[in-house]
Amino acid sequence: MSYAKALAVGLVGLAGHVVEVEADLAAGLPGLTLTGLPDAALSEARDRVRAALVNSGEEWPNRRITVNLLPAALPKHGSVFDVAIAICVLAGSGMLPLAPLGGVVLLGELGLDGTVRPVRGVLPCVLAAARAGITRAVVPVANAREAALVPGVHVRATDSLRRLIDFVRGSGPLLDVPATPVPDPNDKPDLADVVGQDLGRRGLEIAAAGGHHLSLVGPPGAGKTMLARRLPSILPPLSDAAALEVTAVHSIAGALPVGTPMIRHPPFQAPHHTSSVQSLVGGGAGLARPGAISLAHLGVLFLDEAPEFGTRALETLRQPLECGEVVLSRSRGSTRYPARIQLVLAANPCPCAKPAGDAACECSPLARRRYLGRLSGPLLDRMDLQVELTAVTAAHLMQDARGGEPSAVVAERVAKARMAAAARWAAHGWATNAEVPGPVLRSRPWRLPRPSTVELGRWVDRGALSARGFDRVLRISWTVADLDGRPGPDRGDVAEALGMRMGRTG
């Protein structure tokens, strides 16, 4: 037999496509030719596969070998096809029966010594195979746990090409999926660690309950970073569908935590202020990979020292905040990655950043305006809650180190508020108040009575609040009412929402 075919999966962004790997061995000058739009990493597979086969004790066929990847018009990238190519070459030479691998997806990169190494994106690959009706897959042992998350697919693992060849010949077994370690629930930051800052804690709770973006401005040591890093601890866990989606993005980026096949809690990303545009929104040669904003999908993106970020990097966040996805266009095509995030910004009020706050500030009014002016008006207008924090007092520091409400208590209130919002908007397909379009909140039956919004209208007429800001205050008002267990906002809820939006403490 001079022809053989096996199955693999190629990825374009998050979209997986089943790829038929076929090999033809013919008389002629010995060599291996790859066709089907392979990238540089895939083109180098000819050398990896040859060395892996020889070092696994197999004989390399000295014939003219053509390996084709179908569909030919789909760009192929990465080393995920190595195992399938090696099996096809052996089967095409007549040294290996392919019957045991009929209808099986083969994924994995080969080392020169024949080891099968892990690859990125195994979860979306197996998901694509399942959607195509394929029910069996062989993956690297290091990727087995995430592959096994896909229901309806029987996953087996291998650590070497030798083991897979022995299995096909009936002289050895494959590996079972390793057991998943149990995570420690007590290794996460707790809101009880935050000293004082009642206003900041309230803003954090409202942000969590409604899915709102949050801006924190205050002197060093006021607790901005502590609050932001504890936001995931009060967010509800991800649903099964959401967890698969988030895990798939992290799998493509090669950022899955060690020993954690599925991400069950909202992710938290905190890139350094020197981060480039590409590291935030995604980039790379050929087909771009996800950046920090996509890795924070359905979680929190925290920009500490936000004014220190580059202007271009900050402005690139505006479009994803509105549409919930990133579209990256490159020479080899466009890639879409999800980016429905909660954005949290933290900033000092001025360049000198004295711990005592405004009382000890040495900056001129112009310097203060220029510093915070690095955060553009359009970006700040998209921040629902804009909270100003004050310096922590000695009285707060002398209290019990964990005297505040723990995250578990706050998370219960947040969960109840989210359930109320989800029930209210279920018919429209929205899960949080932050997703509700402004025209819906301004129309019957959700339009608030005029006495409740009269002060809000004055801020708009004075030019201190935009139309977008008006709608965001309405959304916050509904979240405040949900936290208090009431069916709708009253005048006090709107006043609190307006104060949170405008950065007023009183």
Cα gyration radius (Å): 27 Å
Q: Number of DSSP strands?
A: 18
Overall CATH architecture of the largest domain: 3-Layer(aba) Sandwich
The CATH class label of the largest domain is Alpha Beta
Low-pLDDT regions: none
**How would you name the CATH homologous superfamily of the largest domain?**
P-loop containing nucleotide triphosphate hydrolases
Within the largest sheet, what's the order of strands? 11-14-17-10-18
Total of DSSP H or I helical runs spanning 4+ residues: 21
Tell me the domain tally.
Answer: 2
Strand fraction = 15-25%
CATH topology of the largest domain: Rossmann fold
Structural class: alpha/beta
What level of helicity do the residues show?
25-40%
Task: Give a quick account of the main beta sheet: strands, pairing sense, barrel closure.
Answer: 5 strands, parallel
**Quick one: overall form?**
elongated
Q: What number is the mean pLDDT?
A: 89
End-to-end separation in angstroms reads 82 Å
Task: Please describe what this structure looks like.
This protein has 506 residues and is an alpha/beta fold. The protein has helices at residues 40-43, 45-55, 82-92, 122-131, 144-147, 161-168, 198-210, 224-229, 240-253, 277-281, 292-295, 311-315, 318-323, 365-372, 377-381, 394-397, 407-425, 438-441, 450-461, 467-483, 491-502, and strands spanning 3-12, 15-26, 31-35, 64-70, 104-106, 109-110, 116-117, 136-140, 154-158, 214-217, 268-269, 282-283, 289-290, 300-303, 325-330, 333-338, 342-347, 385-388. It folds into 2 domains: 3-168, 2-Layer Sandwich (Ribosomal Protein S5, domain 2), CATH 3.30.230.10; 191-435, Rossmann fold. A 5-stranded parallel beta sheet has the order 11-14-17-10-18. The chain has a 4-stranded mixed beta sheet with strand order 1-2-4-3. A 3-stranded parallel beta sheet has the order 5-8-9, sandwiched between helices.
